[in-house]
Sequence to fold (374 residues):
Amino acid sequence: MDELTRLFLEARDGDRLALAQWIRKSQPDVWRLTSHLIDRHEADDLTQEVFLRALSSMHSFRGESSPRTWLLSITRNVCADTVRRRQRARLLTRSAPIEAPSNLDETAAANDLIGRLEPSRREAFVLTQIIGLSYAEAAAVCRCPVGTIRSRVARARADLIEALRSEDLGKLG
Amino acid sequence: VVDCQGFQLLISARLDGETNDLEDAALSEHLAKCSACREFEGEAGSLVARLTIKEAPLVPDQTARILQTYHRPRVSFRYDLLRVLVGTLGLIRITAAIGLFSAGFSGVTGGHVGTELAAAEMAIGVGLVFASVRPARSGALAVVLAVLAVATVFGAVMDASAGRVGWVDELAHFVDALAAISLWRLSTRTGSGHRRTPATA
Fold:
């Protein structure tokens, strides 16, 4: 049993110290995933939301995957909810006569090479390359076949290589 | 026939250690004769390093903020009472085991059988104390105690009915049944009353 799983189980049994350690050791994964799927400036609040959701449903953890994968699935759900909230907000403001100024965070994300990837490719790339999950674990988080993760990671790599080539050409030019 | 795009998928998977021997062999054979794919492999290999240098943000520690905001579900008084009961039963058994050990070693009573009985008593006592501290881990011990309770209560009823022992003397065996029921409750429910689910990961 890995350390994160042990801490999670002890935390679920009511060990307050284990709970603090589990949060401390798990939060980099959650923060990185939220910062790539949404944006860096909202990552703090989203990380907090993920943990509050996870803590209130700890008792329903079924052990079908590791606590790490389970936590990242919750992270993905929180990010999906955030995207839906943003889309609803955009729909509501569409009829407004003066458009709100463009979000600085979105500009930052657009400048980010990973942020420019197609969302499902970005998700697979971040989970496997930045967070370090195996393809099987990433497939469990995304609830899709392993082959889909394999293909999304490869396509993300190809897109990034292409983007880096253009960036290098730009510098030369 | 796999084209270069297909091989680039294999290159990506191999970099992550996610290919099998057959795919490795096919890929090596293709790379030997395809310069475009070799170039892709080189760039893909250094990609994460290039991106990580650009990324590498400092992740802020939000543990205190999260714990401050999180309101733990209230643990019921009955649940705490069960834990205290199980822990107390464990301490009683440990005390009894120590008594049996010293009596066995000093030759007062029991002899070798007495010390073996003491060892079993000690094991159950320590198990009960541990279960009161870690209730989620008490499921297996609940099964052991349930079997012990059925066996000892059955023996007590038979012997008391036959007049070999007094009913009052044998009442203590019913405590085993009480401990088994308490342990089962602790192992299957959380302090806030939710059903516990197994963690096999």
Q: What stands out?
A: DSSP finds eight helices and no strands in chain A. Helices of chain A lie at 3-12, 16-37, 43-56, 67-93, 104-111, 119-130, 135-142, 146-172. Residues 67-93 of chain A form the longest helix (27 residues). The mean pLDDT of chain A is 83.
